[in-house]
Amino acid sequence: MPMKRLLTTLTLLLAWIAAPAFAADTLRPPLLLIGTRANVQDLSGRWTYSKDLYRTGFTDINGWVAKSRMQRHRDVDVAAEESKPGPAFFEFDLDRGPAMDIPGAWNSATPELRYFDGLIWFQRRFDAAMKAGQRSFLRFEAVNYRAYVYLNGKEVGRHEGGFTPFIVEVTDTLRAQGNRLVVGVDSKHDANSVPGEITDWDLYGGITRPVKLIQTPATFIDDATLRLTEAGRLAGSLQLNGPQAANRAVNLRIAALNLTLPARTDANGEARFDVAAPASLKRWTPNAPTLYDVDFEADGDKIRDRIGFRTIAVRGSEILLNGQPIFLKGICIHEEEIGPNPARRVDDAAARRLLGEVKNGLHGNYVRLSHYPHNEAMLRVADEIGLLVWSEIPVYWTVNWDSPATLDLARRMQAETIYRDRNRASVVLWSIGNETPVAENRTRFHTALAETVRALDPSRLISAALLVERKGDTLHIADPLLKELDVIAVNTYAGWYGDDTLADVGKLRWEVPADKPLLFSEFGADAKAGFRDPALKRKFSEDYQVDYYRATLAMAAKVPTLRGLSPWVLKDFRSPRREHPVFQNGWNRKGLISETGQRKLAFDVLAEHYRSLK
Ligand code: GCU
User: Fold this and answer.
1) Residue of higher predicted confidence among 1 and 71
2) Which of 588, 589, 592 is the best mutation target for the ligand 1 pocket, counting ligand atoms within 8 Å of the beta carbon and taking the most?
3) In angstroms, rounded to a whole number, what is the distance separating the alpha carbons of residues 410 and 444?
4) What is the DSSP letter of 68?
5) What's the pLDDT at 64?
6) How far apart are the first and last CA of the chain?
7) Measuring CA to CA, how many Å separate 350 from each of 150, 376, 378?
8) What is the largest CA-CA distance in the chain?
9) Which of 138, 143, 142 is nearest to 155 (CA)?
10) Residue located nearest, by CA, to atom 3 of ligand 1
11) Omega into 340 within 30° of 0, i.e. cis?
12) Is the pTM value of this prediction over 0.90?
């Protein structure tokens, strides 16, 4: 190995070894503001925008500081005052610029931005009802990919990662009238981003989920959790944030269980709850998704969360929900609403439509929300209608395995997801990646992620969608990551990719560990809705998709440790990698429903299969 490369590898290895031991609480996002609370102002609506392909709002040529006349974040009212008596001179105008609906990705807002991948500045003007002594925060549910946030000309925060929430405090910057919130959104991915530059889903740049202004007392409830333990106890915590956080009396109340639990915060403002679960407590299951209103109170502040109580565990090759073996009857879903021009705008109604197809159409009890943390609305609807959830962070195909910064980023995404969703009964599996080729640095990266998950949430199962190896008709999994996983999951496309016939699919044999549950996390075949070919059954026809499903389900039924299925995919979705002019046109067509919600013939094949599974 040439000296230079040897030195680089050694340096990177040393960086790894020298990296400080990972401490879970360092990953707790600075602010959470979870739960439903009063005093929330939703800033959804028309936001003006200014494209900035050459990033002039940040830098000028030669990396020089940006020309002030191009700095979109400036408080132009103040600048105009300062430039008097002369007129202020700007080469942008966010007050008179074009506008689009937020939340929603810019790629669907106007044809001009369909394939725009870069920096766009957004502005929202708003007034705020401010009360003395209160604190003010902006909560962004998701901005894809990098966000630079300015309020009234001042930078108040930035974030990297397109699928998890972040909060910035604006108590000192907010004004009662005429606030100017400017967000620079950069959709560009690169060698160090998570995910990397190439995926099999569309760009969807922008402010893709709601933005809210939240006002709280000076000391407020920032985080609160409660869950049912294997020992049958209700255990949880409450975290206060503010000058009066330590040694405060707090309360947990579940009126429906006639349960009130007082506690006191410690020096760090944290209180813990631990009590035997009342005998009357009804456990959450997909068939009976009982949710309880749980009130967390500290004088001056109160939040409520709707929580279901259940346990999830593995025993040998069984997955146990509330101690009972369960088979996961599922499907994969992208965060993309049904419709001809989706904008990754999945609100409560869109989530109900997608998940309703799984629950009522396919008779499913499970969904794999792929390949990134979905909108919170999805999780709350899954809680409510009774669907178990696989949640995943976008460590997809390949990322920069050797970069400690990329690992920190992935860990932070995992932490933001866990802190956001750990009260969701529906979430039972944390996935730390999808289809990443086996290599030492990759396995080290994933192992560190598994460590993160175990430290932050030991109550749920860890998995990852793995690639399989094949010798003849035998498929086996030789992945060193297996030992880190509670549940094994594999993606298999025999009969679609490659030259297997559907008859060959029936001959496939699986050599997998007998002591762990196995899931088929993906299998599927493209079909253009309406393309019928009963005689020749060529690929891309609904007829081929039907036969493909029949053959794969029959093969799956023979795998003794198989404990669940999530075929690829519920709905056709946009992907720049799918450009067959007749059958795809920028859509991955492996959906069992088309982009407009039209069911394909194979939908009923899977529905029938799930109905037959007790
Ligand atoms: C992969 C991948 C998906 C992709 C699918 C496909 O397995 O995980 O993101 O869309 O296969 O090829 O359609």
Assistant:
1) 71
2) 588
3) 13
4) G
5) 76
6) 57
7) 30, 12, 9
8) 83
9) 138
10) 200
11) no
12) yes
